[in-house]
Design goal:
The chain has 199 residues and is mainly alpha-helical. The chain folds into two domains: 1-69; 71-199, no CATH class. It is 78% helix and 0% strand. It is built from ten helices and no strands. The protein has helices at 2-6, 9-21, 24-27, 29-39, 41-66, 78-97, 104-109, 112-127, 131-158, 167-193. The longest helix has 28 residues, at 131-158. The chain starts with a helix and ends in a 6-residue tail after the last helix. The chain crosses the membrane at residues 7-27, 47-66, 78-100, 120-150, 171-189. Keywords: Membrane, Transmembrane, Transmembrane helix.
Length: 199
């Protein structure tokens, strides 16, 4: 068991870096504004992107290493694995809603990207029972829940209102989300992660 924990060091470090850099606006928003003023917006974005990429690489490499020494926490039934496909579809639609203008999801919840991450992570926690899966998806789920709550509270405090949704925006959101989900579920997930979702 101790070897399994040690092999997850890179994964945990990657999560700390990636989720940490994406939490600056939660815990140190004033500090971020000062750094942007001091460094300039483009330089700040460059450093932010570089740190995010470093964290993501560590997550990918660390997750791959952890999979070589799996520790099973629980054995999910097959029907949960199939339901995860539905959770992932919903997650892709929510993520699409963050970028498609004037859709009702964005108007209603304000932060569909975070809602999509929550849905994706929760579905995968239900469908996977390995220790490394629980560390990865549990960390993303906890971060997304906390960020969503803080972001919604900040919206209420500042009186932020998002543009009203439209039927056209909803249709584009559904189409983009479904297409991206299909490409990922039937092709990219197997080629990049090595797992066939429908096997």
């Amino acid at each position: 068991m101790s070897e399994s924990y040690s092999v997850m060091t890179l994964l945990i470090c990657g999560l700390l870096i990636f989720l940490g850099i994406h939490s600056i606006h939660i815990f140190a928003n004033d500090w971020r504004d000062r750094q942007i003023t001091r460094l300039g917006l483009m330089r700040w974005k460059g450093l932010y992107s570089l740190m995010s990429l470093a964290g993501l690489v560590l997550i990918i490499v660390g997750f791959g290493q952890a999979r070589t020494q799996p520790v099973m926490l629980y054995d999910p039934p097959m029907w949960l694995r199939h339901i995860n496909a539905l959770f992932t579809l919903i997650a892709f639609i929510l993520v699409a809603a963050a970028y498609v203008p004037r859709n009702h999801l964005k108007a209603a919840i304000g932060h569909p990207m975070l809602a999509g991450v929550k849905t994706w992570a929760f579905g995968h926690l239900l469908a996977t029972g390995m220790l490394h899966d629980s560390v990865l998806f549990g960390a993303f789920l906890a971060w997304a829940i906390f960020d969503f709550v803080i972001s919604r509270r900040r919206d209420r405090a500042t009186g932020t209102i998002y543009p009203a949704g439209s039927l056209q925006g909803d249709m584009i959101t559904l189409a983009v989300g479904a297409i991206l989900w299909g490409a990922f579920a039937f092709w990219l997930h197997r080629s990049l992660i090595g797992v066939n979702l429908f096997a």
